[in-house]
Amino acid sequence: MDTNPQQTVQPIPPDHETNSETPEIGGGLSVIQYWAEHTLSPEGAKLWQTLLHKSACLSCSWGTGGQKGGFTNETGEKLQRCMKSVEAISAEIQPGISSHFFDQYSIEQLQQLTSLEADRLGRLSFPVILRAGKSHYERITWEGVYQIAEAGFRQPPERVASYSSGRSSNEAAYLLQLLMRSLGSNNLADCSDLCHAPSTFGLKQMFGTSTSMVSLENLKQADCVMLVGSNCSYNHPRLMNELIKLRDRGGKIIVINPVMEIGLVKFGSPAFPLKSLITGSEISSLYLQPIPGSDVALFVGIQKALIEKGLIHQDFLQAHTEGWQAVVEQAQTTSWEAITQTCGVSQAEIEATATLIGTSKQVVFAWAMGITQHQNGVDNVYSVSNTALLTGNVGKVGAGLMPVRGHSNVQGFGSMGVTIRLKKEIQQALEKLLGRSLSRVQGYDTRALIEAADAGNVDTLICLGGNLYAANPDLTQAKRALSQVDTIIYLATKPNLGHFHGLAKQNTIILPVLNRFENPHKTTVESGNNFVRLNDEGKTHLKDADLIAEVEFLTELAHRLQGDFPVDWRKLQDTKYVRQLIAQTIPGFEKMATIDETQEEFTISGRIFTEPKFSTPSGKASMFVTPLPELALPKSTDFGVSESTPAIVVALMTGRSYSQHNTVVYKIADKYRGMPHRNCILMNRHDAESIDLEEHQHVTVQADAGKLTDVEVIYGAVRQGAALMFYPEVNVIFKAQIEERSGTPAFKRVPAVVYAQATTGDSQPA
Ligand SMILES: Nc1nc2c(c(=O)[nH]1)N[C@H]1C(S)=C(S)[C@@H](COP(=O)(O)OP(=O)(O)OC[C@H]3O[C@@H](n4cnc5c(=O)[nH]c(N)nc54)[C@H](O)[C@@H]3O)O[C@H]1N2
Ligand SMILES: Nc1nc2c(c(=O)[nH]1)N[C@H]1C(S)=C(S)[C@@H](COP(=O)(O)OP(=O)(O)OC[C@H]3O[C@@H](n4cnc5c(=O)[nH]c(N)nc54)[C@H](O)[C@@H]3O)O[C@H]1N2
Ligand code: SF4
Ligand SMILES: [Mo]
Fold first, then answer.
1. Distance from Cα 312 to the centre of ligand 2, integer Å
2. Of the N and C termini of the chain, which has fewer Cβ atoms inside 10 Å?
3. Pocket of ligand 3 contains residue 236 by CB under 6 Å
4. What is the architecture of the domain spanning 5-10+213-403?
5. pLDDT in tens, 32-44
6. How many angstroms does the Cα of residue 648 sit away from the middle of ligand 2?
7. Where in the chain is the domain with CATH 2.40.40.20?
8. Digit-coded pLDDT (tens) for 469-519
9. Residue 238 beta carbon below 6 angstroms from any ligand 3 atom
């Protein structure tokens, strides 16, 4: 038995090298440079004004900002805005698109734009419509919009649908679902279907709750954090401050990621200018690089090692969990060979990890897309959670399970009932409000929506933000599917690829909306740490613009469709009344009833677990056995590549570069990974050399829906057999397997074949 808590574990050196262009630390001085460039530029004054506005940061779910000022987190600490926030605000404070723009450019021309170019067109500032057979978007009056929208929503409820993205407010989200459900439709697809749905589903099954069980205060007390499949150095930069502080107090950080992300090894944070910014702070104590999609095997291995070392908490399991015996048995009976062969991590590394976890006092298990976006995403969540339970690290101060959420209010959308899996309590409360039962027809999640549209079963679609087209796999299908919908209404702040490629059969309407810091009324959002933020009223910088508040549009449309049923919709244009309804019908949001008077931001009740009493009927956590995944890759010939062509099949991970927010690209280079532009593939040197490729050579990358050519090979710290490319561009080449229980596409394990660029006359498969 190995229980020496003092044992230090050295990072295991990677079996590969990065390219020479990558910096030695993540974050660092360039972050300050970015801040300086932007805040001192002509847009600087407006930027500062927005940064100081009392509203939550637009970008990620960490949830910085709010009533105590734009720079404060929920524990009151200052200096908590990162440059991602600046990036997001800069895009929103762009000038408006000129009134002649859409007359000048045809839809064909607009379709040539890249994501970055589309975003740089500026803010949408008047409503436009593209009618069937027309070549140009043209301006439309609001009365015209309402007439088309009203006719669209008078179709049978199963044939109308919504999609939403997590930037809008709780109030808009609540109204969207109330409108849809009062019409009799459960078709409330949401970006979370493509994102953390496996976390929501898995945590619900195990604990009866669906969100992070750890508060920021709790995280501050942990002595070990396991960070699995999250690149928070890019996507949740203020979480890095917590990791730096944890290392400073002697804690340990275990990173599990097929890519050695530089910022997770060493990070220079502007919050600690003297000790961290330039030289960087050590982040990972131990860095494991499993095969993409194999985390279950790795975690079963960790469980096996914990059992063998006598580090599991039997009393805890007996008192507070159900089904633990089967989980223990699975770990015991699964051979080390099966484990190490599936995950590609050695027994020694797995044992070192188990020792670290088993000898730490308070471990937080945090994860993001590397865990959820897999065909077995729910099993991944189960296996992480099982490991936490085996070591008694759930339901205790300073420990627990922490899905690191995506969009800044994506969690709020789920809480407000924008989901196809509505909580029983909310369903009952809404039925009381409506005075009748809700439809029992199963609604469409995002993938089901695309499939239904593709089959001609959707007439009308409203998109509250987001980019339904480009967020999906198989963009050819997405485009075709949307083209079968009669009416699509996009509510958006800025143009994106979806507005130019996701076109309806009859009418595509784009409505320009006010963003979070511009609304004429107060709104709220919910952070990934279950903290509700209040956003003050604001004003838009756009002059002579014809923008609408999301809440105003939704309530006016609802009023035209339903009159005063089941509520006085027009009265709800004052968001205070929406908050009253939320307090009445959404569990945990009682304090919403008084927030207008108290201005008191709050932690949602019933979410943070510091005692092992869970929200299941028995109060115990349910544990589930997690089958090891079968991870065989097809052969290159299965893609139609001839046997004589040197080719390698890789497990392609698709995700975010340093400067993009989801489908919106801010800058083309990802300097921390040394990828100079979007059309790059990050590969392991040995893999590339095995088919005689050289760095910077151009290759074709092909999957089951198409191929990208002229892709530049970049050597990176990615494990052998795996590679990485950027979405949304890469979404054109693959269909993605789907996680059956949650509907989430396996974006992080796309079988793809890589071969040298075909030269002229060479016949390569299509
Ligand atoms: N600046 C910025 N911030 C953002 C976003 C953004 O686009 N830009 N997007 C927001 C949204 S909606 C989301 S969901 C989050 C996304 O945040 P993340 O989940 O951090 O982002 P990703 O780039 O999708 O991938 C995360 C990591 O998963 C790793 N990974 C891939 N496959 C596997 C695997 O099989 N196992 C393990 N263990 N790891 C794997 C990848 O190498 C990568 O480092 O960020 C949010 N915040
Ligand atoms: N291959 C691959 N595909 C993926 C992923 C991946 O990792 N790999 N990740 C998936 C994930 S995790 C997610 S969350 C989805 C993201 O999918 P979405 O959420 O659908 O896409 P976004 O790019 O975040 O949407 C950006 C658009 O939202 C609009 N917008 C911004 N702010 C507001 C606002 O306040 N109100 C309104 N109405 N509109 C606003 C702007 O017009 C902007 O262009 O993509 C998924 N797709
Ligand atoms: S960590 Fe997220 S919420 Fe906080 S400032 Fe950065 S982008 Fe905004
Ligand atoms: Mo996401």
1. 41
2. C
3. yes
4. 3-Layer(aba) Sandwich (3.40)
5. 888 888 888 888 8
6. 32
7. 636-756
8. 999 999 999 999 999 999 999 999 999 999 999 999 999 999 999 999 999
9. yes
Residues of the chain with CATH 3.40.50.740: 126-195+435-600
Instruction: Tell which atom from ligand 3 comes closest to the C-alpha of 239.
Output: 1
pLDDT digits (tens, 9 = 90+) for 138-183: 999 999 999 999 999 999 999 999 999 999 999 999 999 999 999 9
Residues of the chain with CATH 3.40.228.10: 5-10+213-403
Query: Do the Cβ atoms of 73 and 240 come closer than 8 Å?
Result: no
Tell me the average pLDDT across 376-399.
98
Ligand 3 mutation target, pool 35, 55, 60, 666, most atoms within 8 A of CB: 60
Q: Answer whether CATH 1.20.1250.20 is correct for domain 636-756.
A: no
Give me the DSSP letters along 696-732.
T-EEEEE-SS-EEEEEEEEE-SB-TTEEEEETTGGGG
CA distance 376 to 8: 33
By the 8 A CB rule, do 536 and 520 touch? Answer: no
Summarize pLDDT for 275-333 with one digit per residue, the tens: 788 888 999 999 999 999 999 999 999 999 999 999 999 999 999 999 999 999 999 99
Which pLDDT band, with edges at 50, 70 and 90, does 76 fall under?
confident
Mutate to test the pocket of ligand 1, among 652, 653, 664 (most ligand atoms within 8 A of CB): 653
Quote the pTM value: 0.96
> Dihedral (C-alpha) 666, 670, 672, 673: value to the nearest 10 degrees?
150
Residue nearest to atom 38 of ligand 1 (CA): 229
- Residue pair 554/176 in contact (Cβ under 8 Å)? The answer is yes
Closest C-alpha residue for ligand 2 atom 22 = 466
Q: How far is 20 from 17, CA to CA, in rounded Å? A: 9
> What's the CA-to-centroid distance between 471 and ligand 2, angstroms?
7
| Of 303, 211, 396, 327, residue with least CA distance to 622 | 327
